[in-house]
Every structure is written in C-alpha cells, then in structure tokens.
Write a structure and sequence with these properties.
- The protein has about 375 residues and is of the alpha/beta class.
- It folds into two domains: about 110 residues, Beta-Lactamase; about 260 residues, Rossmann fold.
- It contains 16 helices and 15 strands.
- Strands 11-10-12-13-9-14-15 form a seven-stranded mixed β-sheet, sandwiched between helices. It has a six-stranded antiparallel β-sheet with strand order 5-4-3-8-7-6. The chain has a two-stranded antiparallel sheet with strand order 1-2.
- The radius of gyration is 22 Å and the shape is globular.
- The protein starts with 9 loop residues before the first strand and ends with a helix.
- The model has no long low-confidence stretch (mean pLDDT about 95).
Length: about 375
C-alpha cells in the first residue's frame, strides 16, 4: 500500500480531516521550544506536549488504520520493515525547517509513535541558559569527557549541538558523531563533521567507536552510553586525547558517576574510578521547566567541574562528599565554576523566571533548595 504524508485521515471534528503534514505544521507555527512532541496512539486522540504538558487534539480517536496512515509515511519502507520485525524502530524525518526524531512501536492497543521536534536552527551557547560560563571552557578543550545527563526531553541534545556548532565555527577539528537517530544537522564550516546513524551507517555505538579510532577524530559525540563496552571505549577515548560528548539518563552528578560504575562488575570498579577521575571534565545535569510567564520553558542545570578535589573523591569512592564541593566551589574560576541544581533553581525563582512552586517540584533536595532561597549570595553567584 502506498502511504503519503498529505493523506487526510484523522477526523479532527466539524468535518475537518488532518494529515500527518497538518499535524507537523503545528510545530512550525508554535515553535519547537514550546511544542516538543506529538504522540499518536490507537484508541485515543493524538496529543501534543506543549510547555511540558500533554494536550489532546479535539476529534475522534485513532484507529489502527488511521495510525498506519499517519505514522507509516514518515517512517519509509525500510523502517516499516524494521518496525514489523522488531516491534519498534527509531528514525528521523524532516518537515519544513524542523527535524523530527521518531520512535514508533507496537503496544497493547496497536501502533504508536512518539514524534519529537528538534529544529534545524542550533541556538548559540549564550542562549541555552548556562548559569555560568563553563561552556567557554568546554569549547576550548582538546580532550576529556563532557557528560550531559537528564530525563528524555531535558534538552541534552540541543545543548551538545550548540557546543559542537561553536567548535565548528571557531576551530579546525575533525568531528565524528554516533547518533540514534541523527538529530541536528551540522554544516561544514571550520571543522569537518561526519554524522553516523546507528542502524543505517553503523551497527552499534560500540562498533562505531572501534572504527572511529582509525578515523582521526578530534571531537567525538556518542549519543548515549548504553552498555559496558560503549562506556569503556568512551572513557578510553576521553583519556587518549579526544574531546568526547555523551549522555546518560540520570538526574544529577553523583547519580551519573554511580551509573557509570554500575555498568562494571565489582572487580573492575576501582580501575573505572581511576579512569573516570582522569578522563572526566564536566557533568552537566539538565531539567526543562515551564516559564512563569507561560512563554515556553527554561533550562536549569547542575554543573560539576572535575577539579583535583572531585577527582580525588571519585578515585577514593567518597561520592557522598561530591555534593558539598558543588555547593562551595561556585566562583567563576577555572578550578571552580560549579553549581547545584537547587542553587540554579533558586536563582531562576529570584529572577522571576520560574514560579516558586514549580521550582520546588524539580528540586532534587528540597532542603538544599530552601537553603539556596534563603541565601543572600545567590544573585551574585552566577
């Protein structure tokens, strides 16, 4: 059967029918920073995620036939085969100026899709929302691991793309990315950039990393550290003269270090702690919060700078002391530049950007957030 993106199949009410093109056009109209996702599922109406909240379209419910006619056109024949074979598939699709990341899968009621808007315009680092100028140190670095963490939809990919694009603007580097799927598309500027998609250009992150070591990269982006082999090779790449960006689905710095160690058996963890203490440069944990004025979302960050004291705590497995370093090493100096999530949330509240109750929901430690709110130094901190 031939599927097209302009086939009007969803009954949106009052006799109107919508195609998948119509649904994707809404992202361009509202902006990908406000409308982040579209969910299509058999048995209910399609939903947009607007400013972090799900909003259902008016109209009828999606049937299996309607789901296929909405989802299959953006997958393409090859990915439809993968979906039917593996019961899930990841891919990308471009509509207008926006690049979309698509995960389609089968569940109890039938076919589903989660469609995320990525956008083709990469924001500069100055507009990302960093609480300090740690990003300037990152884009100048020649080696080390820069780890971005947070839940799905926390803006990790956008922040990494912004930093890689700044490197692309200012440095002559060989940049190679491994992505699942490719999200932002980089143009060739001062750097030479190759983007490889898992499943299309390379079988896995681990195999891509193995071959990458023979491809003379200066900067590496590993989309996600998913298994022991990928983690091990990523740490080795960071230790051996490459600037490496990667991500984890963890909520804070200490949890990220613990997650990395948990990939390995107990007998190897001391070795990995030593490797991590040497190769790690920054851990940046992100959350996206609704703005107080209702106009989109704003990023809140926790930033760990792996200075001598932090490296020593990692090496000696005294991770319970890491948070106190984040609390005190806040000066805008090379060996400091740290901030806790709670302190950045307090700053956003004090500046009138985020509502107090909203910030409280997102704090990892409510007491630390309250202490930060009561501190007189927070507005001078960053």
């Amino acid at each position: 059967m031939q599927y097209t993106t302009d086939q009007k199949v969803f009954p949106a009410g009052e006799g109107a029918l919508l195609s998948i093109n119509d649904m994707l056009a809404y992202f361009e109209k509202q902006g990908a920073m406000r409308v982040s996702d579209l969910h299509i599922k058999v048995g209910t109406q399609p939903c947009y995620r607007i400013d972090g909240e799900l909003v259902k379209l008016k109209g009828g419910v999606v049937t299996q036939d309607v789901a296929e006619k909405l989802i299959f056109p953006v997958l393409g024949e090859k990915n439809i085969e993968f979906l039917k074979r593996d019961m899930a598939v990841d891919c990308s699709f471009k509509y207008g100026t926006i690049q979309f990341r698509i995960n389609s899968f089968y569940e109890n009621d039938g076919l589903c899709a989660a469609i995320r808007a990525l956008g083709t315009v990469i924001p500069p680092p100055e507009q990302i929302g960093f609480p300090n100028d740690a990003w300037q140190d990152i884009v100048r670095r020649k080696h080390g691991l820069i780890l971005f963490t947070g839940i799905t939809g926390a803006g990790k990919s956008t922040t990494i793309a912004s930093l890689i694009e700044r490197i692309n603007d200012n440095r002559a580097c060989r940049v190679i990315t491994l992505e699942d799927p490719i999200e932002y598309i980089y143009s060739q500027k001062n750097s030479m950039i190759s983007q490889r998609e898992i499943g299309r250009d390379v079988p896995s992150f681990a195999s891509g990393l193995r071959s990458m070591m023979r491809q003379d990269p200066d900067v590496i982006f590993v989309g996600e550290m998913r298994d022991q082999e990928t983690v091990s090779m990523t740490l080795t790449a960071a230790e051996t003269g490459h600037l490496v960006f990667s991500t984890l689905h963890t909520r804070d710095s200490v949890g990220s270090i613990t997650r990395i160690l948990d990939f390995f058996p107990e007998g190897r963890q001391e070795e990995v702690r030593n490797q991590l203490s040497l190769g790690l440069r920054y851990i940046i944990s992100q959350k996206l919060l609704p703005r107080k004025d209702g106009k989109g979302r704003v990023v809140a960050m926790e930033i760990l700078n792996n200075n001598y004291a932090i490296a020593n705590l990692i090496r000696k497995n005294k991770l319970e002391q890491v948070y106190s370093q984040l609390q005190v090493k806040t000066k805008n100096q090379v060996e400091e530049k740290m901030v806790t999530m709670e302190r950045h949330l307090a700053l956003l509240v004090k500046r009138g950007i985020v509502d107090l109750r909203e910030a409280q929901k997102w704090a990892n430690d409510l007491k630390s957030f309250q202490d930060a709110m009561n501190s007189e130094s927070d507005l001078e901190l960053i």
